[in-house]
Amino acid sequence: MAQAYTPVAGGQFLARSAAHDEVFIREDLSDEQRLFGRTAAEFMRKEVLPVVDRLYKHDWDLTRQLLKKASELDLLRLEIPPAYGGLGLDLISAAYVGEQIAINPSFGGSLGAHTSIGTLPLVYFGTPEQKARYLPELASGAMIGAYALTEPQSGSDALAARTTATPSEDGRHYLLNGQKMWITNGGFADLFTIFAKVNGDAFTAFLVERGMGVVSGRDEIKLGLDGSSTTALMLDNVKVPAENVLGTIGQGHKVAFNVLNFGRVKLGARNMSGVRTALNHSVEYAKERRQFGKAIAEFGLIKQKLAGMAVRAFVGDAMSYRTLGDVDRAIDSGNRADGALVLKTIEGFSTECSINKVWTSEALAWAVDEGIQVFGGNGYSREFPLERMYRDARITRIYEGTNEINRMLVPTRLLKQAPEMFTAQAVRTALEQSSSLDASPSPLAAEREFVGRTKRLAIALVGRASASYGDALKHEQEVLAQAADIVIEAYAAESAIARAEKLQARGDAHASVALDIARVYANDAADRVAVAAKQIVAALSARGADDSLACGAQKLAAHAPIDVIAARRRIADVVIETGRYPL
Fold first, then answer.
1. Residue (of 230, 180, 184, 240) closest to 210 by Cα position
2. pTM beyond 0.70, yes or no
3. Each residue of 114-123: pLDDT tens digit?
4. Measured distance CA(57)–CA(522) in Å, rounded
5. What is the model's pLDDT at position 306?
6. DSSP letter string over 436-461?
7. How far apart are CA 64 and CA 189, in angstroms?
8. Looking at residue 442, what is its pLDDT?
9. Which whole-number Å values give the CA distances from 282 to 71, 104, 268, in the listed order?
10. Per-residue pLDDT for 106 more than 90?
């Protein structure tokens, strides 16, 4: 880590204010972390990008060769413990490498599936014997990993899986029967983490080698990521030794859901790589393309799009690295080699993981869509880069748990983690507490005051919804989603503010544009928060909520506007002058 921080508990961000010197930002990356990133970027430029057309034609032998080359640069072993051939590095390092690999999402998906969901189940749930057998092979690229959870009838509802694991009479092995779908690396992986129900009931994870009888279906014909292998798996009496049970029989959900959190916590950095790439392509084109006698970059509505991409790139990085820093320092406060501690820590930050997954995937979707608009008709052509980016980006709102599921998780997880935050008294305090500008000399005092009010609004609305609906709240998906959006906006705005303040405190050359970005984002977020709050209040009023909720929510959601048109133009001008994303 670049500097010392006080550990922060997961899920507590609504109850406390994050000062700028408490958050980890992308600019805090150490020289060692940046070196790993440069190694990954150079590997992508020299080894992968020149041959991507062969990947798009499903040359999986080439994919394996590239993964082997990546292992020779240590890019497959970052999170594997040193005792098993790995480096045992922190999440920030792994995420930063993933950010560089993501410049080609197809190969990035192949490598990411191997190093994350293909390897981490074994790292955190494997026995010493399992780790010794498989982890060195995965670290070296001799074996390629994959993760098989989804089935034709069970996507988001993973526990509805129908794949069965029947124990033999002597208890020495299990016979797996069923089908898995949408398995990344499915066409060529050697080792699969497969989830099945022992005796049709106990949901359990298994380590399954291809040679045990796993059969891959054809590669799916997909909208995007067509340079990565995605197949079904057919399991017909696949004979798995009993010693290949991963974790505990009946506790497969702990493997499945914790590993997904590991994916989500790093996914934000990968998504932001796409946002920056879309912006860089767009500004380059906008400076070259001329209409009505001048470059289209000079037009206000093009500047608005470029500024919007820059805002999302800055905010998404602020959110992602804040969470990564919080998780890493919480782990480092104990023992990184203690798998149980790491799992407990990442589970504690599951709300932040879901927030980042939803926000960054939707920011990426917006950026590539607007990028196509900057390119105009050329954006729709496969001869220009945004068309493929548009297709590749679409999956990010679906995999690692759909955004709908993750929105449900945000408020329900907060209620479970910190019920004391949403009591009747806490709701009254949130609604009645007077607002005041931060007494600190921050140039973003008004924006910090907005974040404080938004947090109180989230506490009030989630608490009142919980009291009103009781156990039935889990079925009120529209209310939960609107509440999630308010929580997400609070986390995003605060992360952007803290990053901008930190840059200003350091006298960073980009502090001015960072402050503009934080102001623009808070201003726009206030409008979205007001709309979401209005819908929740109306739903609760229909169930008998008194007028105090509507009055209090209206006051908390109010925000004095700024001249965002001028601020966006300033942001865009910096982007245009630089010729790329400047931060």
1. 240
2. yes
3. 999 999 999 9
4. 44
5. 98
6. ---SS--TTHHHHHHHHHHHHHHHHH
7. 9
8. 85
9. 33, 17, 21
10. yes
- Range of weakest confidence among 46-55, 196-205, 337-346: 337-346
Comparing CA positions, the residue from 262, 329, 322, 266 lying closest to residue 1 is: 329
All residues at 6 or more sequence positions from 399 whose CB lies less than 8 Å from its CB, including other chains: 182
What is the rounded distance in angstroms from the CA atom of residue 347 to the CA atom of residue 343? 6
* Pairing verdict, β 173-184 and 230-241: antiparallel
Query: Do the strands 191-198 and 202-209 form a parallel or antiparallel pair, or are they unpaired?
Result: antiparallel
Burial of 526 by CB count in 10 Å (0-12 exposed, 13-18 middle, 19+ buried)? buried
| pLDDT digits 0-9 by tens, 429-484 | 999 877 665 556 789 999 999 999 999 999 999 999 999 999 999 999 999 999 99
Q: What is the spatial distance between Cα 10 and Cα 352, in angstroms, rounded to a whole number? A: 7
Look at residue 291 and give its three-state secondary structure. Answer: strand
Q: Are 568 and 303 in contact (CB under 8 A)?
A: yes
pLDDT on residue 517: 98
Instruction: Please state, in angstroms and rounded to a whole number, the distance separating the CA atoms of residues 439 and 441.
Output: 7
If one compares 435 and 575, the residue with the highest pLDDT of the two is 575
Q: Are 454 and 533 in contact (CB under 8 A)?
A: no
User: Rounded to 5 degrees, what are φ and ψ at 118?
Assistant: -85, -20
Number of C-beta neighbours around residue 45 at 10 A: 12
Say which range, 27-36, 39-48, 223-232, 336-345, has the weakest mean pLDDT. Answer: 336-345
Q: Can you tell me whether residue 308 is helix, strand or coil?
A: helix
- Supply the residues annotated as catalytic: 400
Q: What is the DSSP string of 490-533?
A: HHHHHHHHHHHHHHHHTT-TTHHHHHHHHHHHHHHHHHHHHHHH
In one letter, which amino acid is 57?
Answer: K
Single-letter amino acid, residue 9 = A
Tokens at 526, concatenated: 């206030």
